[in-house]
Queue: 4 jobs
Job 1
Amino acid sequence: MGKQRRQYWKKPMAVTLLLIFLVSAGSFGVTYCVNQMEEAKCFERLHEETGEMIRLIEKNAAADRAQLEILALIVAQYDDLASKELWERLDSYDLNGIMGRLELLLPDGSLLVKGGERIDVSDRLSFAQVAMLGAHITDRETDWEGKSEHVVRHYVPVYQDGEITAMLCGVIVLTELPENLILNPYGGEAALYIIDGKTGDFLVDTWHETTGNIWDLGEREMAPGYDHEQLKQGLIDGETGYVVFVSETVGEYLYFYYEPISINEWRVALSVPESAVFSSAYVIRDMLNVFLVFEATCFLLYFIWMFRYIRRETGEKQRQLDTINYIYDVEKLLFNAHERRENIDLALEKIAQMTSAEWVSFWLRKESGENILFQWNMNEKRIEDSRYQEEAVSFFYQYFQQGESQFVAKDAEDLKKLLPVGILEQIRNLAAVPIEDGDGGVCGVLLSGNMPQWQISVVPLKSVSISFGMFCRNMQSYSDILQRGETDLLTGLYNRNRYEIDLKKIKAMAWETITCFYIDANGLHELNNNRGHSAGDELLQLVAEQMQQTFGTQFAYRIGGDEFVVFAFDVDETTIRRWGKEFEEALIKREIYVSIGMQWEAGVCSVEQLIKAAEKNMYEVKKAYYERKNYGRNNKDNSVR
């Protein structure tokens, strides 16, 4: 008897130990995968935020250039460039960009600074060389006012009587640049660098808080797979790339991403310490460790319990284990079923095996009220009676919304008593449970039918109801994410992401004719300046609203700030032109003016060329419109009254 008991123990113990090993290995595997994912996300985020830094710097540089050009016109009005009146105007001017102060370089080699004070810089600087470069930004220089800090100078020429009589300079103090730009990359965890690729000089270095030289720092200890020369050559050549090296400051790996900027030969780079990169992974690792301890404790208790009851419960436990395996399989299948719909059929098949049912169905009700039916049938046949489906769905939703937690009909007589007559003519017995969403509402119904009499029960269905409830929530979240990712929030039209996706579909479809409307809202920039961005937003919304009324929404997109694209397929050219005219006239009645470029083609060879042709037509219409209207900055068209 003892030997037989040991035989009973042998296989469960081996399986349990194997499970412990697999869970442990799986936990380590998950930790490794999470680390890889976090590292990939880090570089992706560094790439995105570096690009954002570059765009911000370039935008401010362009804004500074515009300010300086305006100020140069003001300076040109004064014969005496050192006059008190001029410098009162210059010193009181509110610089909105990244410049800290203004200076004037004169042909005699003198530099006029705040208040018109004159500094002789002829031994350090040639006016002719600076003037020859025209409007430009210098590389890193020393502040000429005697300060030890480094600066960058933004020059524009001052013309008087057709000649350059001075160079107006906006001084950018490099130590103040991060604060002026309000830079906070990677949630404040990352350091920002602006590096001169020619010299290696730091223009900005928020990690060391100095403006030294990157090559003077010497070689860094690199992570496996990375090379110091790769970093150096990449910065010199203006490449985009990343490396991982050990920081001597904090003694841990720094993840360093660099990218060229359009100003001089500057490079913008971000670095983030390893502790910030893997902060989420560390939390997950700690949770997994706690989970492993908890699971080990549970396995120990399981051993003790199994030792006491194995002789009289071996068979029952085997059935329970089979059920658990089925539930686990269903849970795994439903985990990503919102992306892989075929997993739902596989999950229903698992439930059929667990309940010995001939068919299993899952009815999902979406927020829109639409019902979706998923069904597995051992005869590979679906019940196609639409009247049956509609009546059955309506009955069960009402039944469970009244607070009932289960439905069981063990034979035909029960079916006739409980269900409306004629709904389920092909079913001998039935079990059903409600599937609840996170708020406790009924979002679906899970049913199994035609089971052996001894197997008729809602217990197996209830055991997987939580997984189906999670699937419902995942499905809704997934749908919401897809919709937000493809919809322009301001206008309700599809956005650029959906536009790029649909272009691939359009290319793959065999259309006899394709029409592209390329639409631009006239005067948006002036409207924003004159009446604010809320008025501009209203204009875009009205244009989008008329687009939906005229062309529909299936292939209507907002692809840029004031640019829209609409496609129409297999519509004759006369109708297309009528639509375009109706659209434009409807907007003109509301005092809204747009430029429409229309391109209708049969047997389209290249959708890209079709779009480019429509865009070109739009620009021609826009040009003609502005010439006809003598359009200027003070024009009141598209005022959205």
Job 2
Amino acid sequence: MALFEKYVGRKYTSYEDFSKNFTLNAPDDFNFGYDVVDKLGEEQPDLLALLWTNLEGDERRFTFADIARLSDKAAAMFQKQGIKKGDRVMLILKRHYQFWIAIVALHKIGAVVIPATHLLVEKDITYRINAAGISAVVVTAQERVADETDKAQAKAPELKTKFIVGGKREGWLDFDAMLEESDGVYEKVTVCPSDIMLIYFSSGTTGMPKMAAHNFHYALAHIITASFWHNNEHGGLHLTVSDSGWGKCAWGKLYGQWLAESAVFVYDFDNFVPQNLLAMMEKYGITSFCAPPTIYRYFIKEDLSKYDFSKLKYAMAAGEALNPEVSEQFYKATGLRIREAFGQTETVLSLGNFIWDDGIPGSLGMPSPLYDINVYNDDGTVCRTGESGEVCIKADENKIYPGLFLSYYRNPEATKAVWHDGFYHTGDLAWRDERGVFWYVGRADDVIKTSGYRVGPFEVESALMEHPAVLETAITGVPHPDRGQVIKATIVLAPGYEPSDALVKELQNYVKNATAPYKYPRVVEFVKELPRPSAERSAVLRSVRKTQKTNNKKDEPVYLAHFSFTHKYFKYFR
């Protein structure tokens, strides 16, 4: 555990010891590519870093020496194509092993990595390229990702360089072939705490997705996630269920795990089948496992006694609320308590049920010592025991903190809206009990969390409003026994349209084609009118859309962040 000792210093005997005495040695020039991957490649070249398999049964094992060598080759390849420090590069690679090679390479040359899901369509990709100034992409040959990217490029002139993985395509560079031919010689760079390493697009209830920018210390701060929540250890094999396009991948499939010298297991699949995933966990001897609560809800419907979990030592859940009965049933079947935690795209793990005890089922646990966290009233005072308030991190907006985002890239107004008066405001509500344990209440801004995805109502509303049948709409999340929440659209139809099952299907398919398919409303209700101000918002949106079409600017993003809508109106649609 040489890396652990270098950056943390020692192990801790209890949460109290951890909370009071934890320190993180974060060198200004820390670069995950050099200081973790290359270091392990030199000192423990044969240690397993990545074990990858897919539905067809193909299997690849990569040691740290392999990842160091291949990321060098990719770094040289990228530089030879003109990609340099500070350039924004989007990766849309599903669960392909090339993602790990590409992201480490981009860290080594100081480029800004922007992971994205393969579910995005032309409109989503166009917005991201233009918003972030993306000049290069590396995408999978599967699905329709390359098709959608080609269409987006016509409206995104900054995109110049396109790599494709797992296939060949006219106008695209063959990532795999060029990687094989690369000489691995590239110019190393030096980074500092103000340099951006990574950007994640983060959905909200107003406006288009924001860009949470992280520096190079973000990777190092995930040692909290892996060592003190996942309990990843040298020689272990950790599985986090996540596509590489989501922030959860950074939490559980890369940074902290390799800092803990644990291997990452990657199962490259498209559709979640509980029996298949359980079989993989048994076959490969997964030692620690993390997934959204939705996965556990499906697991407990299976006969878990058929699977050998003897090597599984820790189980974690995050991303949405975990039902107590699900946790209890999983415990009865496996003897493992599911440990929950809390964090955001803008942070690393902030609250957690850490490794020193069994955790408290249903709770978010206790604060990470990286941050000064409490629950606050609207007037800035600390909430009393049992009183709900907003979870806030005490942090000067003019300073840089390991793991806490630098800003919303190119959006100072949005940054100031959440980071002011000496606090970062998470927008999440919770309360603390007499032991100091945090318990989740909900999102202050009503972001919908469905099957592990975070969806801003505005994104779905914007897509639906383009359909001629929709006069007004309100988008909300409603409870679902397996998915946590599902998206519901409450719709007022335009004159000449009547409710029908066929129209419901048509509207659902329309949203699937207009934006990422996971955002479509699974529940649709037709009503005569919407309570204000939701109807006002839809009317304004339709008016803006009409103006855009008149001016031939249909595809420009619409920003309605200046409208304020009180949360009480959402109760009508739950």
Job 3
Amino acid sequence: MTLGVVMLVHTGFGRAAQMARHWAEAGCPVIIHVDSNVAATQYDPFAQSLSEFPDIRFSTRHRCEWGTWGMVAATQDAATMMLEEFPDVQHVYLASGACLPLRPIEELRDYLALRSDTDFIESATTADVPWTIGGLERERFTLRFPFAWKKQRWLFDRFVQLQQILGLRRKIPENLVPHMGSQWWCLTRQTLDAILQDPNRAVYDRYFAGVWIPDESYYQSLVRLHARKIESRSLTLAKFDYQGKPHIFFDDHLELLQRSRCFVARKIWHDADVLYRSFPVAKDPERATEEPRSGRVDRVFSQAVKRRTRGRQGLYMQSRFPSSDRENAVGATPYAVLQGFDDVFPDFRSWLTRQTSAEVHGHLFAKDRAHFVDESTVYRGGLSDSARLRDYNGKMFLTNLIWNARDKHQCFQFGPADSQDIRWTLAKDTQASIWVVTGAWAIPLFASDRSASDVRAEAARLQRIEHKFLKSLRSPEARARIKIKTLAEFIEAPMETLQTIIDDIAGHRGTALTEVPQMADLTGLPDFLQDLKNQGMHPFLTGDITENAAAQTRTVPRRKPYVISQK
């Protein structure tokens, strides 16, 4: 059984000549098509370098602009020459100058000999598989594309829009169901000859000449009319990124390509000397009949695409940094934001540290400086406590802090007196747990022993700021885990909220509270709030605090509701 190779070349002529020799030395006739855009100064030396091989021929040259009919016309002429001049050829393999055989050609030939009536070509309808990149799926078969997408992009887009607005549609030829797939196929002589000699070829050619990227649909569609047996897969390992651009294999992909056991791979970098020296591998009788295992490569590349587009939570890279739409989370790990608790409980930070062993910071976004857990001037990762440096990009300050200290659960205090540039970042971060006691800013004002008239303006300012923060938290765009209680609601039953915070931070290590933080003395707070109202400032975020609730100085520990004691 003889295998013929049609090779498309437009660049990298040194490597293309090397590959053509390799195919020819293995007994495969080769028909080479060189893009007509290639100058004679490059074409002539390339053709001359292969003149010693009688089974290497050159077909009529066409201009092969990406996405246009020239690519199909080139393969038609080359395939016709192959069938006419080499009658012993039973399978025709379409390759490029950047394709590299990974296994011995003899193994590929033996593999095809056992499947003499099978066509290997990826072929699927657009309705079944959403492969296309750029939004044109079915429309690529029903609209006209006279302009090149790469060189005439503006005209391409405007003409597509015009056809969509006017509702223009092309008629698909009768009995033809458009299919798509990889352009790198391996067809039997019978199927390829039937496609090229089809009585309706002129109709099909005229139709596909107006299809966008016809080299990915012409043979993929017509093979359905003539093939006896189709394996809808390519024998060439070719991977594409999330933008539809082909991946290039470099020397560091050596092990990955070895594991794939595929027959041919593209696109190989022209300077990947290690790959060109290592492949094809030596023939091994034990592996001669082994099936290609491209699934191994697929998994690696799918993970790479995910890492490329999604990245790791809380870690930024240049490719995703400019676009907020490509964020998957600001923080690398879950963290807690606590607002108002240190106002209600003066010793709250040390208490929370004892209960959870978490890293409990002070007000990281305070106006004077970032108050780290140990009140140091520099925290992990070289983060400075400078408010000016922090506020240059508060979002990145928070991201770096969480990333550099991701081995421990991070908690920090927040409040209306802090810099608020970070509020939307907190609200949208899926890693954040935000606990707010609204109106707790009134406690420091009350404890200052200043009259209501003296603190009225400050109370109004803090309430306006907190109200804006709450609007962010209650926005449909908020993605954080958010719990909000008024000061009145919280001081009446603080233990339930505190226990929930402990459970959230400590996880399975959380236990029922046995130690209660000392609450600030709130005796007289209702009168203070009433004085603010009398001054014309209504502290609505505090809630309605009664004198009995304010007079509480000690809370009783409450067991977790799900802990059941048995006698």
Job 4
Amino acid sequence: MGTTAILSAILTLLSGIGIFLVACQMMSSNLESASSAKLKSLFARASRSKLIGVGIGTVGTAAIQSSGATTVMTIGFVNAGIITLSQAATIIFGANIGTTVTAQIVALGMFGSNALSTTVIFSAFAGIGALMMMFAKSSNTRTWGGILTGFGMLFVGLSLMSGSMEDFAALDGVRIFLAKISNPLLLVLIGAVLTAIIQSSSVMTSIALAMCVTGLISLNQGIFLTMGSNIGSCIVAIIAGMTSGANAKRTALIHLLFNCSGVIVFLVAGWLLNVLSGNSLSFGILFEKMFPDAPQTQLAMFHTFFNVATVMFMLPLTDALVGFVTKIIRTGDVSGNETLRLHYVDDNMLQAPPVAVGQTKREILRMADLSMANFDRSLDIITTLNFSERELFDSTEQEINFINKSLVDFVVKLSDRRGLGGRDKLFLSTVYRTVRDVERIGDYAENIVEYADALSAAGDKFSDEALYEISQLRILVHSLYDKVISAYSRENMEDLDQANIIEEQIDDFTKRMEDDHIERLNKGICNANTGAQYMELSSNTERIADHLINVAKTIRAFQTGA
């Protein structure tokens, strides 16, 4: 084989890797979109059972075909304080099992050399899916077309990689060189480094499968490369954890320690197996006997066995592992009480857009609670002229403003991600105005506190009649808020209708407040200064009601598609 042929084989390998990576991304994003509702309920579930945590990680990773996405998303949940470190650990354990599905699919596609091969059959799905994406009118059909296209492209890339391996296998120099690499630690290191570079254990495992099938490497060499790929896959979690809080860093470290522990245990077990059998047994020999004449199945089954066994070994040690990483990483506030941060979303969740959408709504609801809490404080301050909660009010207003900016920035990034369903995109289009409406509630509460400052500076206060009317107005606003939140969170049109009725009652009530105030002015019960602050309070509260109803009205977009 000449230089041109070698260069061609290298370029073919790179082409196969590129197509394989694109296929994985296409499958992942479209699978996320197709299963968005299930993913939201799956990952939002905080479980007390370690086995359920493993199940969530396994099913979630198998569904979206990306252990990296599952791990990064889990880091995001931990960083947001949604799940504990123990729960995150079990989900990551399960993700390692779920990622073996890809290797099993790839192995299945390598059968059939004399007849019509499964690789050719499965590759044809790329064309079928592409036609569905081009001509289907339904967005759901186009999504499934994207899944089929990604699935088919997976085998197109695999075919190219296998072809390049056959070319390399024809080179005596390459075979001799690879045959010399028999040291398990070196093979594990090579697998880890290559996986860290391409950031995909699925690609590394698929390359190892192709090399085994073409005879370029032995099954034992493939086993050690695959074990190393598990360590290299941690690079995605490490990168995500480095940019996040202490608990996120701990989660990334758990992922690394888990995979390294599995590799160490299997290296020791393999060495003992070899020594005790007098060099007659190894993992490779055992799996060759269990699955004869099918090297692709032998390596794929070892990959699954390795990850399942590692989970079984590490699961009872979860609490000890969590305690260890907690002692190692002590920096930062890990209590979940950090100020000026988003509590339910961070950039790590961009790896799973459908789940991030659900968390965005939770962040908005939290922001609404903060705004209403400040509205209550503002009324307490102006009615009692007690400013003891002024510092808390100011810090909450600062947090509301922070959420306003940070959440909008997050939604801009999220809106550009693939894998979002039609309803998710529709929801995100309403977020910008919703966040602005909620932020304005805080601004009007700030105005009310300023009116309290004016009253206090002048030595004035509201009359008993005015205080009673303010208390009644507060009750109405809270009734409106309850209906608005119920309508918004549950997308309930009946609650929206009731919210509209209450909002009209608030309009009528604030108009009566103005009339009653004028009557009190004429009677000399109130002076001009208290009257001015009272009228402004009434007007600002009425505008708060307007912004609240605007939040609830966004659900009409989901009913009408407008």
